[in-house]
């Protein structure tokens, strides 16, 4: 059985992430989308719980997807849940170097853990959670960047911050 983990910040989940989730779910038996509780990202827009709720909402119709969160090393979490594959999305070449480094590091720590890179769909090539947040902060239209279900949450969050 292939049990894969798709780790990330997902602050918030974008259409680029969702595209990777849908495509990865077709390749593996079980896909665990897991929010990294990153102590260095204290400037996060959404709490880990909010990000988990968003991910659950947008993946509710995909049968083999579960959502979780983890702290610390990815390899430790992979061992804990018995995952043997890591899914990562690749956008431009700029993603490549750090992703490659991370994949090799993880494999040196856990030989049986393979990283599977899925290239982005062309329409999401320039999409990241930070771009989305910047557009939303200045009142731009984020409809094509984010799943409809959570768009309002992003707009509300910025409206609250502006009060
Ligand atoms: P980070 O790991 O930098 O915190 P994210 O949490 O936003 O990044 O993303 C998690 C994973 O999703 C990474 O592998 C990232 O490359 C990938 N990803 C992010 N945005 C896209 C996109 N638009 N298309 C494809 N993959 C993406």
CATH topology: Rossmann fold
CATH superfamily: HUPs
Structural classification:
alpha/beta
Q: Classify the oligomer.
A: single chain
Outline type: globular
> In CATH's first tier, which class applies?
Alpha Beta
The set of bound ligands, ions and cofactors reads: adenosine-5'-diphosphate
- Helix-strand pattern: EHEHEHEHEHH
Average the pLDDT over all residues and give the rounded result: 94
Main beta-sheet strand count, sense and barrel state:
5 strands, parallel
Write down how many β-strands occur, each being a DSSP E stretch of 2 or more residues: 5
Question: How would you portray this structure in words?
Answer:
This protein is of the alpha/beta class. The protein has a single domain, classed as 3-Layer(aba) Sandwich (Rossmann fold), CATH 3.40.50.620. The protein has six helices and five strands; from the N terminus they run βαβαβαβαβαα. The protein has helices spanning 15-27, 48-58, 74-81, 93-109, 129-137, 148-162, and strands spanning 3-8, 30-36, 65-70, 85-90, 114-119. The chain has a five-stranded parallel β-sheet, with helices on both faces. The radius of gyration is 16 Å and the shape is globular. The model has no long low-confidence stretch (mean pLDDT 94). The structure holds adenosine-5'-diphosphate. Residues 8-10, 14, 16-17, 20, 88-89, 91, 95, 120, 124, 127-129 line the site of adenosine-5'-diphosphate (ADP).
